[in-house]
Amino acid sequence: MGMTHIVDRRLNGKNKSAVNRERFLRRYRHHIKRAVSDAVQKRSITDIERGEKVSIPSRDIEEPIFHHGQGGKREVVHPGNKEFVAGDTIPKPEGGGGQGSGQGQASPDGEGMDEFAFQITQEEFLDFLFDDLELPNLARKKLKDTEAFKYIRSGFSTEGVPAKLDVVRSLRGAHARRLGLGGARKKKIRDLEKQLEALKSAPEDLDPAFSHEDQIQVLEEEIARLKANVRRIPFIDEIDLRYRQHVKKPQPATSAVMFCLMDVSGSMTQMHKDIAKRFFILLYLFLKKNYKKIEVVFIRHHTSAKEVDEEEFFYSRETGGTIVSSALKLMHKIIESRYSPAEWNIYAAQASDGDNWNDDSPVCGKILADNILPLVQYFAYVEITPQDHQMLWYEYEKIQERFPQSFALQQIADPGEIYPVFRQLFERKAA
Amino acid sequence: MTNLMDRPNLPKSDQPRAREPISTGSEWTFELIQKYDDEIAKCAAEFGLDTYPNQIEVISAEQMMDAYSSVGMPVGYHHWSFGKQFLSTSKGYQRGQMGLAYEIVINSNPCIAYLMEENTLPMQALVIAHASYGHNSFFKGNYLFRTWTDASAIIDYLVFARHYVAECEERYGVDAVEEILDSCHALMNYGVDRYKRPAPISASEEVRRQKEREEYQQRRINDLWRTIPKLDEDDDPVRRRKRYPEEPQENILYFIEKNAPLLETWQREIIRIVRKLGQYFYPQRQTQVMNEGWATFWHYTLLHRMYDKGLVTDGFMLEFLQSHSAVVYQPPFNSPWYSGINPYTLGFSIFTDLRRICENPTDEDREWFPDIAGSDWLETLHFAMKNFKDESFIQQFLSPKVMRDLKLFAIQNDDQEDVYRVTAIHDEPGYRDLREKLARQYNLSYREPNIQVWNVDVRGDRSLTLRHIPVDRVPLGKETDEVLRHVHRLWGFDVHLESVDDGTVVEDHHCPPREVEED
Fold it and tell me: In CATH, what is the architecture of A253-430?
C-alpha cells in the first residue's frame, strides 16, 4: 500500500515505433517502390501528396521459426462438445490433397489472407517517389517543407513580449474595466450628491430633531468613501494588456500557371507518357511549394494542338505527324487571353520524343524566343528518346544559349534523368 | 459462464455494507486512480497477495500500440519486425477490427502496468486489480519467474541491449546487424535450456561465477578450431567416432554463440542478447493459462470484495462484469469465432473451481482431490500459483467439474486413418485421459519440435548437424529450410537437420541444399 507510483506518460514518447517502422519500410522498399510507381500512374498530377496503401505478399515478410507440419498423429482438446461420445468417428473431408489432414492452408476467400497491407504516409510516399527520380536531398527538402514563412497577425493574446503590446487595445480594455468596476459607484455618487444638494438647499427644519445636519454628514461620508473606492480602481491593470499575436504561415507567393505540353503523335508510347508524367509531377510539386494558387493547362498536339483535361492528355491515343509549333502557338494564345504575366508566374514543361516536321523547328525556336520566353519564368523541355537528336533539339540548344536562366532541356531515357532539368530551377530559387 | 458470475463472493462481509462508494461517475482522474489503487491494495493485502511495488503508467492508444509492437518490452532494440507488428496493430485498431488490450504489464521490479487513457474508471480499476495485483503477484510468486527472470534487472538489461545494438549498427551497418538479429529471432525459442533444471536464483552470484568458468572453457573449446589435427589422432577410430558435443545440446543459440567458428565478438554478444530475451519470455510462454487465470481470478475477487465493502456502485459492477464476461468468453469449437481454448477462461475456471473445492467440496472432489478438498482455499491457491506451470497445473488441478462446464473433448487426427476419432469426453471414463491430453497440449516440447545440436564435424568440413526427435510422427513444417538458412548464416558452414524416429532418419534438410542425385 502506498507503494504504487502513478505516472502520466501520455505526453512523452509517442512515436517510439517510428524507427522500427522506418526499418520495415527500408527492408521492403522494393515492394513499396512498385506500389508508389503504380499509384503515380493512377493518380492525377495534382493529387500526388497523399499516402498510399501498400500490399506485400505475406510469404515475403514471414519470420520463419521451427514448427510442426501437417501429418503424423495428433490429439487436440476442444471446448463446447454437444453430441460426441468417446469412440465416435468423423469422416475427414474429401480432397485436400491425398493425406487429407483436413486442415488445408488455403483460405476460402482468396487473396486477402496472403497479403500484408499497410498505409504509407504522404511524406513516405514522396520519399519513394523522389527516390525514383533520384532527387538530391536538398531538392527533396525544398519540395517537402515550406520553409518560407511569413508572420501574419492573428488576433490578440493576453500574453506576449512588450514590443508586441497593442496600446489602443489595452487602453480600451482598461477603460471598459474602469467603467465596469466604477460605473455603478459613480452613479451612486451622483445620486447621493443630488440628495445632498436637495438637503442643503431645503429650508432648515425648525425642530432640531429633524435637523438635516446628521443626514448631510452621513451622505458626505458615504460619498467620500465611494470616491475613494473609485480612485482605487487602477487606470490600467495587468489584465487589460493586449498583445498582438502573430502566427507563422507559409508564404507561397502568388499564383502560378503550369503549362504541360506533350506530343501525342503515334510515336509516343505509354512508357514515354509515364516518364513525361513524372516530369510534370515534379514540376507541379515544385510550384506548389512556391505558389499559393496553381492552375495547370494541358496542351497536347500532333499536327494541331488542343487544350484538354488531364485524363485525355495522358491516356488518349492519336496518330499522325508532328508539328510542335502548333502547341507553342496555342500556349501563347492562352497566355494572352487568360494568364497575364503581370498576375501569373508562368511555367511550362514540354515532353516529346523529338520528332518534328523539319521545317517547323525554326518556327518553334522563333516563337519561343520572341513570344514565349519573355513571358515565362521557366520553360523545361525533355526529350524522351534514346535515339539521336533531330532538328528540334538543335534548335532548342540554340535557345538555351540565349536564355540560360529560363530555358532548360534534357534528353532522358528513364525517370532518374528527369531531375537534372530541374537542378537549374532549384538552384535559381534557392539563391 | 454465468455460473461463475453469480456465485456469492467470500470472504463474508464482516462489516455492514456502508454504501459509501469512492466515486459514482465513469470518468477517471489521477486522484481517483490513486484512491482505487489504495483500496484495491487493501483488499489484496487481506488475501495475502505478495507483490512487487507498482508503477502505473497512463498512456494513449498510440503509445499502447507502440508498447504492443515491442512485444511488451518497455525498451527494445530497433528491428523491422517490430515495425511490422506496429503496422498490423495500428491497421487493425484503426479499422476497428481489434480492440487494444486494456493493459500491458511488465515483469519488472517495480512492476510496470500501462493503462489506456480511453478506459473508463471501472475499466481502470479492473486493469489495476488484474495487472498490478494479479499478474504482479504471479511474477513475484511463480517458481518459473523466480528462477528464470530477474525482475529488478530486466529494464537495465533492455537498456543495455538497445544501446549495444545501436552501437553495432553504427559500427557495422544496419544491414549486418539486421541479418544477425533475423537469424537469432528465428532461433529465439531455442535459446533456453528447457530440460535442465535452472539453478535457484538465490545463488545467483555462484551461478555467475560458474558461468564465467564455463565461458572460459567454451573459449578454450574454440581452440579446437585452430589446432591442426594430428594424423594419428584422426586415425584413431574411437576418437573419430566421438561426437562433439558429447551430449546433445538443446540450447542451440548458446551452442552457436560459444562454438560458431567465424562469428565476431559483437555478433556473439547479439546472439547472447536475443538468448537472454528468449529466457525472459520463457516463463511467460509456459504459464499463460495460469498467469491469465490467476490475474482474472483476482480482478474478479478483488472487485467483488470492493463491492462487499460498499466502495463501488452497482453501475460500476455492471460495467465491470460485462468486461469480465467478455474476457472469459469461450466460443465453442464449432463457432466461427473459435480459435482454440481461451487461456483466460481455462485458468479462471480452474482457480475458481479450486476455491470451490476447498470451501464446498462434493464427494467427487473428495475422491479426486483428497488433499485439497476442504483445505484453506487461500493457501491452496497460492501453492498452486507458486509451484506449477501450465502443463503440470492442468495435470494437477483440472477438475471433472471444469471439464464438464467447458464440455471438453479430445479429437485425434491420424494421417494414417480416414476418420477423426473422438478419444475422450467429459465423462467418468474420460476425465483422466482428457486431463492428460490437455496438459500435454501445454507442454512446450509437444508444441514446438524438439530439435537439438547433435554433432559438429570438428575434424572434417566443420558442418553442424541438428537432430529432430519427432513425436507421434509429426513432421517438421514448411519453414524448416528457411530457418536452416538462418542457422547456416550464424554457423558459417554447412548445416544438416535430420529427423530421427526410432533410430532411422525419416526426414532431412540441408543448407546449402544437397544436389538431387540423379539415378
Answer: 3-Layer(aba) Sandwich (3.40)
